[in-house]
Design goal:
The complex is a heterodimer of chains A (387) and B (271).
Chain A: H1 2-23, E1 27-34, H2 42-49, H3 52-55, E2 64-71, H4 73-81, E3 87-91, H5 92-100, E4 105-110, E5 117-122, E6 137-140, H6 145-157, E7 166-169, H7 174-179, E8 185-189, H8 193-202, E9 212-216, E10 226-231, H9 232-237, H10 239-258, H11 260-267, H12 278-297, H13 303-318, H14 323-339, H15 349-362
Parallel strand pairs in A: 1-2, 1-3, 6-7, 6-8
Antiparallel strand pairs in A: 3-10, 4-10, 5-8, 5-9
Chain B: H1 2-9, H2 12-44, H3 55-68, H4 70-102, H5 104-118, H6 122-132, H7 138-161, H8 165-173, H9 178-215, H10 221-230, H11 234-262, H12 264-270
């Protein structure tokens, strides 16, 4: 009787143990992304699909099983700061504001090398420089986030303040509001809304607007934009994990820069409603295959040569497809221009100082950080000692 | 048997004193217990202080924003939106509810729509309202009015349908006019249920107003919470949430007071 009971208990224990053992085969890691699934997150999608997160294994341990979680930035930063999550893509100014409020978060890969915000004006407008915005109605999604920081930086660098313009909160509706003449200018993401407005104008669906001009913040100030953040305890206790995640993202980013047609096709599985009918899919598959061959034949191709290939890709597709079909691909290509650099992911102290100065000007920070250089590190980038 | 024991234990003057004091003391005891639990969580370091700040840090931040006037400025905006939303939503709910209760066709046309909208979370359609009625407080007032409308409409329909037929027959036998039927019977009889709906609506109105502020605003308690979150000012988030809770409780208390005044005849009758 006792033997039977023992055998039963042993069997039950084994049954309970099996799922636990299976679960230990991979290491779960949640990667936090803001907003909603979007073509701009293609480096993460490519890294996932290509298996870059699993490629280096994990200290001989279980490979990483990465899942994506979307949410708003402050929530993501707090979850990472509290150790509930370990990695996410967050803006530089959020990181500084969070550190100023005692959150132990650190920037480990500067994804956007150029600040993506700017001010758009219709082509025929008499606003020819930032200083011409004085007294004019300027739309903005709201007095928060990168748009607000960017506008403050742009105005400050031109000797102006918010009081000099008539700032109107319009939500994320700049194309609609600009097209109906609701504002004279609008704060936008330069890799997105100007393309949408130009697209509408080309289709005759944007009132009197025939085209747009953009004043990029990056032309005036070098501020830190989005990148990977983690927490101090992960860096201290698990540096190999940090370098593996940075490696995977960096590899995904390089793959997108080198072959945007392939990245677009991969992203279609993650982003609902991405324009991709059969003819476009076939054209992108052909272009992606050609690019793979070209890269194999030109292993030392320069940034400029690859950039020319991207321009040629768009020109070729524009001859075959409507601008509506290509709008998201155009967003991706415009974004790549903001990501591409000689040293992907590299952060400079000067950019952080300028970002901090803007946050202080805006009143989002009360005092400068004691040690600004602790807010970021380049130590985990591929090719460095820890990377 | 059990109730006898209780009667003995709490009987006489002691029981009466406890019964009278308990509602007031519970106001103090419950927050005190929450405060103690909160401090315990902070002291044990269950979460870092930037996630759950201490009661003292929240109190300090609260005093700062009260003294600077920032809290009151934003509370005023939310209260104005809430009161307007509550007024518009309650009046239109009662008005249309009355006709739905009286007319089968109106009921058939409106009720399915009302039930469908009531089961749709306000956060789902609030962004559309913000786009459609963009300027100033309009979108927040409409969000608030819509969230209030549904319970007021349904409670009014239920209230009027619950008028005892015997009383209706009595009024008819006394040749009461339509106006007399309305004022002397339907209002008096339906008021307890309608005021019950108004109590729920008072708290819902605050939610509607704040949801609109979360989406797009430049003032109000919802806006202040968003600002505090973006500045990682958790103590201010808690101060603002407590202010919201207090505002909703005060509105609820006001309707309770109104109920006491308007339904005093009911209590007298039940004695």
């Amino acid at each position: 009787m006792m033997r039977k009971l023992f055998a039963f208990l042993l069997g039950a224990l084994l049954l309970v143990g099996i799922p636990a053992a299976t679960a230990q085969e991979t290491r779960e890691l949640t990667f936090f992304l803001t907003f909603v699934p979007n073509i701009q997150f293609s480096p993460v999608y490519v890294a996932l699909e290509r298996g870059y997160f699993e490629q280096r294994g994990y200290v001989g341990d279980a490979p990483l099983n990465v899942v994506i979680e979307h949410g708003d930035e402050p929530l993501g930063v707090d979850l990472i700061a509290a150790g509930e999550l370990q990695f996410g893509l967050v803006s530089g100014e959020q990181l500084l504001a969070a550190r100023a409020a005692g959150r132990p978060v650190v920037f480990v890969h500067e994804w956007f090398q150029e600040y993506p915000v700017g001010v758009v004006v219709p082509d025929g407008s008499d606003i020819e420089s930032v200083s011409d915005l004085a007294g004019r109605r300027v739309g903005i999604p709201g007095r928060f986030g990168a748009s607000y920081s960017g506008l403050t930086a742009l105005l400050t660098s031109n000797g102006m303040t918010e009081a000099d313009i008539d700032l109107e909160e319009i939500g994320f509706n700049a194309p609609e509001v600009v097209c109906v003449g609701g504002v004279d200018a609008s704060v936008i993401y330069i890799n997105n809304e100007p393309l949408q407005i130009a697209n509408r104008a080309a289709a005759g669906d944007c009132g009197d607007v025939t085209g747009v001009r953009v004043f990029p913040v990056a032309a005036a100030v070098d501020m830190v934009s989005n990148g990977i953040i983690t927490n101090e305890s992960t860096i201290a206790e698990d540096p190999r994990l940090v370098s593996d995640v940075v490696y995977a993202f960096d590899a995904g980013l390089r793959a997108v820069i080198n072959n945007p047609a392939e990245a677009y096709l991969i992203s279609a599985d993650y982003v609902d409603g991405l324009p991709l009918d059969e003819p476009l899919r076939a054209a992108l598959e052909t272009a992606a295959a050609r690019q793979v061959e070209w890269l194999a034949e030109n292993p030392t191709a320069t940034r400029e040569a690859i950039a020319e290939r991207r321009v040629a890709l768009l020109t070729d597709l524009q001859a075959q497809f409507s601008s509506n079909s290509l709008i998201q691909l155009e967003v991706l290509l415009a974004s790549i221009e903001l990501w591409d650099a000689d040293r992907l992911g590299f952060s400079e102290l000067e950019s952080w100082e300028q970002t901090q100065a803007v946050l202080l000007e805006m009143g989002f920070m009360e005092a400068p950080l004691d040690d600004l250089s602790s807010a970021f590190t380049n130590d985990f980038l591929p090719g460095t000692a820890q990377g | 048997m059990v109730s006898e024991v209780r009667k003995t234990r709490l009987g006489g003057r002691e029981g009466a004193v406890i019964a009278r004091v308990l509602p007031y003391v519970s106001w103090l005891i419950t927050p005190l217990l929450i405060l103690l639990g909160w401090q315990l969580v902070v002291s044990l370091g269950v979460y870092p202080e930037f996630i759950i700040p201490s009661p003292a840090a929240v109190l300090e931040r609260g005093v700062e924003v009260i003294v600077s006037g920032r809290l009151w400025e934003n509370t005023q905006v939310t209260l104005v939106q809430t009161l307007l939303g509550l007024g518009i939503g309650a009046l239109s709910g009662v008005f249309l509810g009355y006709f739905a209760a009286k007319n089968r066709w109106v009921d058939t046309l409106l009720s399915p729509l009302v039930v469908t909208f009531q089961s749709t979370p306000v956060v789902a359609y609030a962004p559309l309202l913000v786009i459609w009625f963009r300027d100033g407080i309009t979108s927040k007032v409409i969000t608030s009015a819509l969230i209030v409308f549904f319970p007021m409409f349904l409670n009014t329909v239920v209230a009027l349908r619950n008028v005892p037929p015997s009383l209706r027959d009595l009024m008819l036998s006394l040749r009461a006019s339509r106006w007399q039927m309305f004022t002397l019977l339907e209002v008096s009889s339906g008021l307890p249920i309608i005021l019950g709906g108004l109590k729920v609506s008072a708290t819902l109105a605050v939610i509607g107003s704040v949801v609109g502020e979360f989406i797009n605003a430049d003032a109000g308690l919802g806006f202040l919470i968003e600002q505090a979150r973006n500045a990682y000012d958790t103590p201010l988030v808690i101060v603002t949430v407590l202010t919201l809770a207090l505002s909703a409780r005060l509105l609820y208390g006001f309707v309770e007071f109104l109920e006491g005044r308007l339904l005093h005849w009911q209590r007298r009758g039940s004695r």
